[in-house]
Design brief:
Blueprint: H1 3-9, H2 11-18, E1 28-34, H3 39-52, E2 57-61, H4 66-83, H5 89-99, E3 100-104, H6 112-126, E4 132-136, H7 145-157, E5 161-168, E6 193-199, E7 204-211, E8 222-224, E9 231-233
Parallel strand pairs: 1-5, 1-6, 2-3, 2-4, 4-5
Antiparallel strand pairs: 6-7, 7-8, 8-9
Helix pairs in contact: 3-4
């Protein structure tokens, strides 16, 4: 299959259709789940789809191991290539690497000015200005509203969309009146899209909790395949 055909058939098109055409420039979105459920895999699949469409992506990792993120990109791309019988694999993988920049940040970093300084230094040094940022491993616990106001302003300034991962507390899970779990519920007004990953018997379901300002949210007909860790349509 050619890359253009793969892009048309990607389950990310289903996601975009369900959230008013996509997250959108200047907006924040978050995938939330318990630890180990598949947040990073989901973020990387969204990023790879963007990269295959020849857009630039910066992946900000607050993990102790930056190589861990590179391994996820290799895994997700290889699984996509296999699932869709993608042609010109090496050329497409080279395009992904060319359009992707991974920045590793200290997981204890809390100062927005320090975070912004590191990101801008990398962007300006590489002359790399992305359409999407992925923020993975940034703790939502013990955060103030100003921490996320910074990210919202950052998205607007750089005319980019930003996707986050948020880990749910394993033992004391609380939901607000909209069904949005803490800690994401504490900052929900700053996020345009909120999606929760729910483990089921044979798959991980993607549940749409917030869709921009729409009072009624669609049911996402998407799942995460626990074997391949790819987002897939429920009908597939």
């Amino acid at each position: 299959m050619l890359r253009e055909e793969l892009i048309k058939l990607s389950p990310i098109r289903v996601l975009e259709k369900s959230i008013n055409g996509g997250l959108g420039k200047g907006n924040l979105g978050v995938f939330t789940a318990r630890k180990g459920v598949g947040k990073t895999a989901t973020l990387v699949h969204v990023a790879v789809d963007k990269l295959l469409r020849n857009n630039k992506v910066i992946h900000l990792s607050f993990s102790d191991n930056p190589r861990h993120i590179e391994i996820w990109y290799d895994h997700v791309f290889n699984e996509i290539a296999k699932a869709y019988n993608l042609e010109n694999i090496l050329d497409n993988q080279e395009q992904i690497i060319k359009n992707r920049l991974i920045i590793n940040l200290n997981k204890k970093s809390t100062d927005p000015q320090e975070i912004e300084s590191v990101i801008k230094k990398c962007m300006d040094g590489a002359k790399f200005y992305p359409a999407m940022f992925i923020v993975d491993g940034f703790s939502f616990y013990d955060r103030e509203r100003d921490d996320f106001l910074f990210w919202k302003k950052f998205a607007e300034q750089h005319n980019a969309e930003i996707w986050f991962s948020a880990t749910l507390h394993r033992h004391s899970l609380e939901f607000d009146d909209q069904g949005i779990p803490s800690p994401a519920s504490n900052f929900k007004d700053l996020f345009s899209v909120i999606i929760m990953l729910e483990p089921k018997e044979n798959h991980i379901s993607l549940k749409l909790l917030k869709d921009h300002d729409n009072p009624q949210v669609d049911q996402l007909k998407l799942k995460l395949n626990p074997k391949t860790m790819l987002i897939a349509n429920h009908r597939v």
